Amino acid sequence: MEEREVKSIIEAMLFVWGDPLSIKLIADTLNLAPEFIRKCLIDLKKEYEMHDKGIQIIEVNNSFQLCTNNKHFEYIQKLCTPPQNKGLTQAALEVLAIIAYNQPITRPEIEGIRGVKSDKAINTLIEKELIIEKGRLEKTGRPILYGTTDGFLKSFGLNNLKELPNIDEFESLDFTDK
Amino acid sequence: MAYNVKLEVFEGPFDLLFHLIEKSKVDIYNIPIADIAEQYIQYIEDLKKFDLEVTSEFLVMAATLIEIKSKMLLPNKQEEQIEMELCDEDPRKDLVKRLIEYKKYKNIALTLKDREEVYTKIFYKQPEQFDGFINNHEKEIEDLEIEDLINAFNHLLEKRKKLSKSSINLKEIKRDEITIEDKIDQIKNFFKEHISLAFEELFANPFDRNEIVVTFLALLELIKLKFIVVQQNKIFGNIIVKRNIISNEV
Fold first, then answer.
1. Measuring CA to CA, which residue among B227, B223, B230, B233 is closest to residue B246?
2. Is residue A148 a contact partner of residue A164, using CB atoms and an 8 Å limit?
3. How many Cβ atoms from other residues are within 10 Å of residue B139's Cβ?
4. How would you class B41 by CB atoms within 10 Å of its CB: exposed for 0-12, middle for 13-18, buried for 19 or more?
5. Subunit contact B113:A87, Cβ cutoff 8 A
6. Partner residue facing A67 (CB), from B15, B123, B250
7. How confident is the model over B208-221, as a mean pLDDT?
8. CA distance B123 to chain A (A)
């Protein structure tokens, strides 16, 4: 099969699937090597970017998904008034940041860093499927360990956790600077 | 004289402390603790005045500040520490460490917020509806009697019996038994990367009675949730478990 054809098939599959589609599933379906599929996907992604399309391809944890280009938000909003997605509160964002960099982490550890109770923020994040229980710590009370989900990566445009901004860069920030 | 007091909401004692430090334009490594403690306590007093709830965390911090203040008043080599670098004896050391740690995440939260703003402007399409299409060649769940599932299940139990007879009968006490929720997650995860699997494969490894029951219940739950469909291509054929394409759950 020619590469062009493979890309074309993959494009159709992404369109139909809607959800993030894993390289493995595409490779199994086409009976081709995953490395080759990855290359096709990356090429396809670049093609969309190069031609400044209204649709883009994003990668989340070895899966790919079609979505709209955020540049066009204003017009989509005019067209169909999408449900207002209220952003996260400062508290929820802080908790999310702590979990993202320290997962798996327990609630008391999160509260230790923030110096304040954080159960409400944690519940919001669970409801929004940005974090999930990743098991329990084998010590008294068996506290729940929290970690981030693929939904978290998607919501913040990250391919994987390694793409999180380097934490050390945040340490040297000027404190008198708001 | 009418005068307005605007009280900002703080995310916790560290947040308030930062606000005070920033407002006073002082060096984080050299906090004039007496001054900051006073401002901090004043703020708590204001909250009380306006009948706002002062949570325990704020009071704990107030106590900590007073404790540090009193320690610093003790004549402890103070002359040498006029330029007070943060050395081990500095009672502020621990507080500063925690403040810096907290500030780090506060800054990251800001970055996340920026990213969130961009990525909430992206839309995704719902997965296609394929119901009509799928049923063409294969039997759907409606054609599959519950008996078929039970038979398959009995078959498995038989197999397990044979297996356990041939091995030494040891009783094992397990601490963590797998829950239906865990199993549901496991199966869901499996279907992230696979389209289908044979019913028997689901029970391939565990020959623990509890896990077999849990797997079976998880399977029924997922059928109910329409996450998977169960198909049998011919009578007495293998039962195939498939991810339900109509489901938009991943």
1. B227
2. no
3. 19
4. middle
5. yes
6. B123
7. 83
8. 5
Q: Tell me which of A116, A124, A161, A173 to substitute to probe the interface with B (most B C-beta atoms closer than 10 Å).
A: A116
What strands lie across the sheet with A105-106, from one edge to the other?
A: A105-106, A144-148, A131-136
Asked if residue B75 has a cis previous peptide bond (ω within 30° of 0), the answer is no
Whole-model pTM: value is 0.65
Q: Collect all residues of chain B within an 8 Å Cβ-Cβ radius of residue A155.
A: 116, 119-120
Amino acid at B196: S
The predicted complex's ipTM stands at 0.81
- Hey, is the C-beta of B9 within 8 angstroms of any chain A C-beta? no
Of A142-146, B7-11, B117-121, B212-216, minimum mean pLDDT range: B7-11
Average pLDDT of every residue of chain B: 77
B209: Cα within 13 Å, side-chain hemisphere: 7
Of B142, B119, B153, B129, whose CA–CA distance to B244 is shortest? B129
Residue in A25, A100, A114 nearest the CB of B193 = A25
* Residue corresponding to tokens 């084998």: A138
Q: Do B194 and A25 touch (CB under 8 A)?
A: yes
